[in-house]
Amino acid sequence: MHRKFLLYISLIAFSANVSAQDARTFSLEEALAYGVQNNLQLKQAEMDIKISQSKVREITAIGLPQVNAEASYNNFIDIPTQVAEASAFDPSAPAGLLVPLQFGLPHSLTGGITASQLLFDGSYFVGLKSAKEFMKYSELGAERTESEVKTGISQTYINAIAAEENIEALEENKKNIEQIYLETSKFYEVGFLEKQDADQVRLLKSSIANQLDFANRQHEAVLNLLKFQMGIPVNETITLTDNIETLIDMGSDIALSLINQTFSPTNHIDYQTVMQGERLSELSLSNTRTGYYPQLSAFFTHSQNSFSNDFGDIVDKFYPTTLWGLQLNVPIFSSGMRYMKTQQSKLELEKTRSQKTMLEQSLTMQAINAANSYKSALERYEVLTDDLELAKTIKETTRIKFNEGLASSSELTQAESQYLTTLGNYINTTIELLNAKLNLVTAYGI
Predict the structure, then answer these.
(1) pTM of whole model > 0.90?
(2) Cβ neighbours of residue 123 under 8 Å, at least 6 residues apart?
């Protein structure tokens, strides 16, 4: 029995140790670094880059020598028959007499090798350049995805910390209200307070408990979203180490400096992506125009052929055939097909350039709006910070007065409700400020 008890205690200690090791802690910077390495979207973007690299090698191989080997065996059950005038072989034969002739043997075996080399094809060179530019486009896409993933992780991390801040304040308030409710109940039992006073405090206690339960569920949901964005299994436990003050200070100097900077869209990843798209459209137009150019290629073929009446003698003797040559294809007339393709490519290029202009204006507008939003959020945060301190002071003063019999339960409830409302406004404003700072940095392409 004693040994079983020791074993049970050891298992509990081991389980606690494993759980402690499984729980991982992350600051915002650590969460971003982990997410960049493990986010599934980023892994897919990396696959796109590898696919583009393979595409470049595939197109490059088109312009290199191509070698193919082939072999065939034929067994003519009925040898093909031709007919000819008998007089062609026998002058004494009557006119119009046809005789059947069979050329060939029942069994034939052929094996050969063919080599070809592209000498000139305008579309090949344009296609090779397009593939390389598309690889750059994929790299920009991966960079853009990384930026979006970081933004998503940052926003969720902010919401998670704000939820923790809300839970901490509600738990402290719940503890205070429970103490007040205990004291109020005792005063009511001895007749110093009316039942209505005790009921109002009880109602406030229940309201705070409900808010705390909702805040805990919300915090769990936000943490699960954060784990998903970081590439962590949802059933694992993580702990966040930053707090509201740390997040507010983080990057504030950069945000304040951006407000006074002139915005340039060329540094933004979206603008660089559309610029790369414009280069691809230009190459697409060039590729369409190469349809008017001739194509030239060279080839070399060598084969060995064997013929026999019996299958067993088919490898006794082979007859070689060797040749090389040039093949030239010159486009002459396509009934306007190539012309219409060229027109379509021109329109696609104009469309891309129009999108670039529209994006430039949009990014500039976003940067201006993000700067103004950050200024407004910063001003509201400073006001709400003072309001929260004031509401907290009023709450504590009212509680003291209530304990001393100088304030009613209605005044206590009002002060507590006012504090909770101000706390909610403060947390929402803090989230707004942090998101505004994040949007500002993102708008400027930092």
Answers:
(1) no
(2) 287, 290, 291, 293
